[in-house]
Design a protein that fits this description.
Blueprint: E1 5-7, H1 12-22, H2 26-34, H3 39-47, H4 56-64, E2 70-73, E3 78-80, E4 104-105, E5 111-112, H5 114-128, E6 132-136, H6 154-172, E7 178-181, E8 204-206, E9 218-220, H7 222-232
Parallel strand pairs: 1-3, 2-6, 6-7
Antiparallel strand pairs: 4-5, 8-9
Helix pairs in contact: 5-6
Length: 239
């Protein structure tokens, strides 16, 4: 996963912190895309008394094993602040930053930032000049089932509509080569982040609860037919 960090203020310290936090894990992708381990990271290891022997054979394999395309997961953005902002359970982000007060959050407190996807598509494409596929993107939510086994998940439709719309802008307006989009996940499953069934992602509801009860029956949510049309129209149905 790749997470953009925004500076909390225009203060240069916040801007620098946001840059460093956004780029924190990019050195791994640099190695895979550029075919060599980044020198700044080697320098960082040396300054911390970590010595890594890189053989000529290693360098050869690195260079020959460069990626042909890049896949990344996107779920949220965070905010960086160096100006004595106190972290609390309410404002602490999942990746060490802060929750942006300008953004809505999911039922589990994850910031919802569709424009952040467009931002990261542009950043990644301009940095590596490789085709991109979004390998994960989606919304964990507490779905409710009606007496008729209907699940009216308009919030999931809005989330996906907004994110795919920003992806289209990145492709059409910004010139990003993004050749695919995969949503996590088509059917309800145990959440990898919380170990819960009640944190649901899918277009298909699975009657299984956290206490082990349930019939395992499947029911199509409102988002099922909506996304079916998105696929059939190759995204033209996105508002």
């Amino acid at each position: 996963g790749i997470t953009p960090f925004y500076p909390a203020t225009p203060h240069p310290d916040d801007v620098l912190a946001a840059f460093k936090q956004t780029m924190r894990d990019f050195y791994q992708v640099d190695a895979m895309c550029f075919g060599q381990f980044p020198q700044f990271k080697i320098n960082e290891y040396i300054s911390n008394d970590i010595n890594i022997d890189i053989l000529e054979e290693d360098e050869k394999f690195f260079f020959e094993g460069r990626l042909d395309f890049l896949g990344f997961n996107y779920y949220q953005s965070e905010m960086s602040s160096t100006l004595n902002t106190k972290q609390t359970s309410e404002n602490r982000g999942l990746h060490g930053g802060y929750i942006n007060p300008y953004l809505e959050v999911s039922d589990w407190g994850w910031p919802i930032d569709a424009k952040g996807l467009r931002y990261m598509l542009n950043l990644v494409y301009r940095r590596y000049n490789l085709p991109i596929i979004i390998t994960e993107n989606g919304l964990g939510a507490a779905d409710e089932v009606t007496a008729n086994n209907e699940i009216i998940d308009d919030y999931r439709i809005k989330y996906l509509n907004d994110h795919i719309r920003e992806l289209k802008k990145a492709v059409i307006e910004d010139g990003v080569d993004c050749f695919g989009y995969l949503m996590w996940g088509p059917i309800d499953l145990v959440s990898a982040t919380t170990g819960e069934m009640k944190k649901r992602y899918g277009f298909i509801y699975v009657d299984k609860q956290d206490d082990g009860s349930g019939t395992l029956n499947r029911y199509r949510k409102k988002s099922f037919n909506w996304y079916k049309e998105v696929i059939a129209s190759n995204g033209e149905s996105i508002e």
